[in-house]
Write a structure and sequence with these properties.
By secondary structure, this protein is mainly α. 67% of the residues lie in helices and 0% in strands. The protein contains 6 helices and no strands. Helix 3 runs antiparallel to helix 4 and helix 5 runs antiparallel to helix 6 (76-99). The longest helix has 24 residues, at 76-99.
Length: 103
């Protein structure tokens, strides 16, 4: 008997609701990130970027932070701070574009 666990499928059935959207009726800056992660896990990179553009830069930021913690690179935290600012900018730009129905 073969056991197969479909993690992306499980995630699709267990999405967390957005409290911000429920309270204020508009999407928050992170709305779409869960669906984008599921699309990325399924191998749909383009769909993931369309759903939530900051996801891949955020995952790279997390990986860079973990590498910095593990290996303590000389200028690693400086790079992490630059990546954090860039990802924040991507989050805010994509949020305002979505908020004003530009895409």
């Amino acid at each position: 008997m073969e056991l197969h666990f479909n993690f992306p499928g499980w995630l699709e059935n267990h999405l967390l609701p957005c409290a911000y959207k429920q309270l204020f009726g508009i999407e928050c800056p992170f709305c779409g990130s869960q669906r984008a992660l599921i699309a990325l896990l399924k191998g749909n990179v383009i769909e993931s970027i369309i759903l939530y553009p900051p996801l891949i830069p955020a995952l790279i930021l997390i990986a860079a932070s973990l590498l910095q913690i593990l290996f303590r690179l000389k200028h690693g935290w400086k790079l992490v701070r630059i990546m954090l600012k860039a990802d924040f900018a991507i989050i805010m730009i994509s949020y305002f574009l979505k908020l004003f129905n530009v895409y």
